[in-house]
Amino acid sequence: MEKATINVKGMTCGHCEAAVTNALKELSGVSEVKVHLDNGKVDVTFHDGKVSFDQMKEAIEDQGYDVV
Amino acid sequence: MEKATINVKGMTCGHCEAAVTNALKELSGVSEVKVHLDNGKVDVTFHDGKVSFDQMKEAIEDQGYDVV
């Protein structure tokens, strides 16, 4: 398992937190997600090889947020 | 039909807009809802007698926002 922190712009409320969390957790290979609304950071624990950073980035962007 | 504008605190994004809009539209007697995120105002068209201001206020507060 690998851990990464992704910087996301535009998350403002609990609904945003849920949207990003659920989108990431739906990806096979992602096991844990923790969104920090105060600083726009998303901690992800994932299985490298099963899911790529690009896939996680795309899942977040599909919800309407920017990965910065 | 009556029109009212409700001042709501804490709506920040499209998800908030959807949550408040849907909660109000689920009330029998509410026909139109327009959320203005920029100033926190919610325009409601409703059938007075079928739905009360208190019911609309409660529906908004149940979603986690404050009516001010």
UniProtKB/TrEMBL annotation, chains A, B:
CDD domains: HMA (cd00371). Its main location: cytoplasm. One of its GO terms (biological process) is copper ion transport. One of its GO terms (molecular function) is copper ion binding. The keyword Glycosyltransferase does not apply. It is found in: Cytoplasm. The keyword Chaperone applies. Residues 2-68 form the HMA domain. NCBIfam families: chaper_CopZ_Bs, copper ion binding protein. This is Copper chaperone CopZ. It comes from Scopulibacillus darangshiensis.
